[in-house]
Design goal:
Strands 1, 2, 3, 4, 13, 14 and 15 form a 7-stranded antiparallel β-sheet that branches. Strands 5-6 form a two-stranded parallel ribbon. The chain has a domain of 154 residues. The N and C termini lie far apart (81 Å). The chain is 37% helix and 12% strand. By secondary structure, the chain is of the alpha+beta class. β8 and β9 form a beta hairpin. α1 packs antiparallel against α2. It binds calcium ion (CA) (4 copies). One calcium ion binds next to loops. The site of one calcium ion has 7 residues, from loops.
């Protein structure tokens, strides 16, 4: 064997090994490329999702910042200032994505967060008002009242703890105010189909599965608008605030230190008027809202008490909110209280008193009132049983003013607004809002990834408080 040939063979073997090595390396590299390509694309998906999430978060933070600004810098002359600014910033762009905040109310899609005060707070409604709502029977209405009233005695058709135990439920009525809309669905007789309607994920937005008929759950009528069932009329989230429209804490007329001078500084009026108002405010069963339906001279001499009986309905009287049948001696001509005595207050002053004063020490937030500036004809008509013409007149009067209605004085002279109508309404109406729900969708520019957040915020005290956070 010559060495040349041996050498040649070895070279041949090396060559083969090299070729094999190159082939294996090439195969490995190709394999690695596939893996790293997959990882990169997975990385991109992760990044896109993160970008969408942060875009949604940026939208929510923007809304909260605007709400806090308006709590600190209220504009008593413009009831719509906050709402308009929220609306103007309902869409925003970041370097990597966008946010988009909108909601549907009474089938109409609106930009910006949902004002919880546009709906009736279920904790303020009595049985009769609940039964005004379509498909709410007496048994369901009583079960709702039983759920939140402090006693454990069921109404005739109602349901307290034993009813739920008897049906193997692991829960019982709270015997306190509802804390969320979702809680309402636990009540005997309340079907999610009725409460949510088409808005199956309760985000106040029309999602694809909520507008495709029977193709996917839930069933819907595929008409391009969100029919949100009872949830379109009712909330459990709206809350009262210790702050008046001026931004100062409300002036407590029952407090010892509040004298006529302090009252007159806060709400301009004559001394006899201030004296009469303090006398009324300190009488048992006084309710400031009665000033809308009866003259101060009548109220302060105790003749107007009959219309002031009853609670706000939170303790569940059978017809709470409807007990103000008596006008307390008010005489009305042409739809407005006659204020003949010099001690009586003109409507504008009544409005300011309701905006700035209180007769209760604020200890914790209670069920919030309905904001006349954002509520719907449907709520006025289908919950408060207003006749359609009057409901529409109220909405028209509000819509005619770009700054909205800054006090309830603005509705007192609407034709047809009799004390009988106004008395129950005055208990639940207001001109401001504190709790909003922000249904925010973030989108990444990378492949259009989406992320949704639904956040309920109470701006009544600073810093704003997040009442609910969810990612549907
Ligand atoms: Ca109860
Ligand atoms: Ca929805
Ligand atoms: Ca569907
Ligand atoms: Ca629909």
């Amino acid at each position: 064997m010559n060495s040349r040939s041996a050498h040649h063979n070895r070279r041949g073997a090396v060559l083969v090994i090299v070729i094999w090595a190159v082939a294996i390396a090439a195969a490995l590299a190709a394999g690695l490329q596939v893996v790293s390509f997959r990882q990169a694309s997975m990385g991109n998906q992760v990044i896109a999702r993160l970008q969408a999430r942060w875009a949604a978060r940026a939208g929510v933070e923007t809304m909260i910042a605007i709400m806090e600004y308006h709590t600190e810098n209220p504009d008593p002359e413009d009831a719509m200032a906050l709402i308009s600014e929220l609306e103007d910033n309902s869409y925003g762009e970041l370097e990597t994505g966008t946010w988009d905040i909108r909601h549907t109310l009474a089938r109409v899609e609106l930009a910006g967060p949902l004002d919880e005060h546009s709906k009736a707070n279920i904790n303020l409604l009595g049985q009769v008002q609940l039964m005004n709502i379509r498909d709410v029977g007496m048994d369901t209405a009583q079960a709702i009242v039983d759920w939140r009233d402090s006693n454990t005695e069921p109404g005739l058709l109602g349901a307290e703890a034993s009813f739920y135990q008897g049906r193997g439920k692991s829960y019982a009525p709270r015997n306190k105010d509802f804390r969320s809309s979702a809680e309402v669905e636990l009540v005997a007789g309340v079907m999610p189909e009725s409460f949510r309607g088409e808005d199956w994920n309760l985000n106040s937005r029309l999602d694809a599965n909520e507008d495709d008929g029977e193709f996917t759950w839930p069933e819907d009528n595929e008409d391009g608008a969100l029919d949100a069932g009872w949830s379109d009329l009712l909330t459990a989230s709206s809350r009262t605030s210790p702050l008046a429209i001026s931004g100062q804490p409300r002036l407590n007329l029952k407090a010892q230190e509040t004298d006529t001078k302090i009252l007159m500084e806060r709400v301009p009026m004559s001394e006899p008027q201030a004296t009469a108002l303090l006398a009324y405010a300190r009488s048992p069963n006084a309710r400031l809202e009665q000033l809308m339906v009866a003259p101060l001279s009548t109220l302060s001499t105790g003749q107007g008490q009959s219309g002031a009986q009853g609670s706000q309905g939170s303790q569940g009287g059978a017809s709470a909110g409807r007990t103000g049948r008596s006008s307390g001696g008010a005489s009305r001509r042409g739809g407005s209280v006659q204020q003949q005595s010099p001690n009586n207050l003109d409507p504008a002053t009544v409005g300011t008193v309701l905006n700035e004063c209180t007769i209760e020490e604020f200890t914790q937030p209670k069920a919030g009132k309905l904001n006349i500036n954002t509520t719907t004809e449907e709520v006025l008509r289908d919950v408060f049983d207003l006749n359609p013409r009057l409901a529409s007149a109220i909405i028209q009067r509000r819509d005619a003013k770009s700054a909205g209605l800054t006090s309830l004085a603005a509705i007192m002279d609407i034709p047809g607004m009799t004390p009988e109508v106004l008395s129950p309404l005055s208990r639940v109406l207001d001109v401001q809002s504190f709790v909003f729900t922000i249904p925010c969708k973030g989108r990444s520019f990378m492949g259009g990834a989406e992320h949704e957040m639904v956040v309920t915020v109470d701006r009544s005290t600073l810093p704003a408080q997040i009442l609910m956070y969810r990612e549907p």
